[in-house]
Amino acid sequence: MTLFVVYLACALVGAVIALWRAPSWPRYNLLLAIAAVPQIAHILGIHIREMFVLSVVAMILWCVCNYRIAGVPVVAGGAALNMLAMAWHGGAMPVRADILADLGYHFEAGVLLEGSKDIVVHGSPLWILSDWLPISTTLLTLIISPGDILIASGVLIWLLFSRTPNPDSERKHPMLAFRTPAAPSEQHLHLVPGHSARPALTRLALLAAADPALAERLLHDPFDAADAHPHYHVSLDARDRATLAAIRARARTVGEFLGELAAEVDGI
Questions:
Q1: What SS3 state is found at 182?
Q2: What burial letters (b/e) apply to 123-141, b meaning 16+ CB within 10 Å?
Q3: CB-based contacts of 97: which residues, under 8 Å, 6+ apart?
Q4: Is the CB of residue 174 less than 8 Å from the CB of residue 90?
C-alpha cells in the first residue's frame, strides 16, 4: 500500500509538470507497460521467475526506441542497475536483513516482503545495487536503490528538459530547406550569355540559378534536365556533356553542383 501511494504521488506530480511544459512523449509505451507487469505481479504476491526475462527484454526495446529523448538514457542506466541486482536473486530485489533491523523490521533471509518486490538477504555480491538507502519519515519508510535514484532523475530530466516539437517550426523547415540550395546561385548572377567561351553552360547556369527545381533536376540527371527544359532549349556539345558528367560525379548537393558549374563557366 505504501508503494502504491508513493507511485500515485509521483504520477500526480509528473502529470502536473507535463501539463505545464508538454515534454516529448516516448514511443512504444506498451513495452514499458509490459516491463512493469512482473514488478506489479511481485507487489501483488505473484512470483514467476520467467516473467523477469520478459520485463528485461521489453525494457531494453523501449529504451532503444526512445534513447534520443532527454532523460531516457538515465532511466535506462538506472533500470539496468536494478535488473542486474534482481537477476542475481531470481527476479526479486535484494534488501539486507541488517538494514531492515535498523529500521525496526526483523525478517529471516529468503523471505519475500509482502507488498514489495524485495527479498531479504544477509548479504549479496551486488549489495551496492540493492535496496539499501533508507528514506524514513513520520508518514512512511522506504528503502531504495541507486538504480531507483537514477530512474527518478531520468524521469525528472525528461519532464524538465525534453519538449514536444513545435508544429509551426516543422512546417517552416521544409521551406527553409527548399530555399537553402538557391543561396549559392547569388554568386553566379554576374554571368552574361554571349560573353563566355562556354555559352551553352552559361545559359544552363543562369537558368539553374533562377529555378531551384531545375537545379535539383540537374544534380540528379544533368543531360535530361538540360534537354527537356520547358522554355529554353540548351544545346550541349560533347565537351559540355563531359563537363556536366564530371561535375555530377563530384557534387553531392545542389549548391556544390551550381558552384562547380559556375567555376567551369568562369574558367576557374
A1: helix
A2: ebeebebbbbeeeeeeeee
A3: 106, 107, 108, 109, 120, 121, 122
A4: no
Q: What are phi and psi of 33, to 5 degrees?
A: -65, -40
Phi, psi values for residue 144, rounded to 5°: -115, 170
CA 85 to chain centre: 27
Mark out the alpha helices in the chain (DSSP H runs). Answer: 2-21, 29-43, 50-66, 72-88, 97-102, 146-161, 167-179, 199-210, 212-220, 222-227, 238-250, 254-266
Residue whose C-alpha cell reads 533471509 in the numeric block: 109
What is the rounded distance in angstroms from the CA atom of residue 114 to the CA atom of residue 152?
23
- Burial (CB count within 10 angstroms: exposed 0-12, middle 13-18, buried 19+), residue 263: middle
Which position has the grid cell 556539345? 237
pLDDT in tens, 222-234: 666 556 555 556 6
In 89-231, which ranges are continuous DSSP H helix? 97-102, 146-161, 167-179, 199-210, 212-220, 222-227
Residue 25 DSSP symbol: P
Q: What span, in angstroms and rounded, lies between the C-alpha atoms of 100 and 95?
A: 8
Give the range among 37-51, 141-155, 198-212, 223-237 with minimum mean pLDDT.
223-237
Among the listed residues 212, 192, 210, the one whose alpha carbon sits nearest the alpha carbon of residue 202: 192
Residues paired with residue 94 on neighbouring β-strands, in sequence order: 119
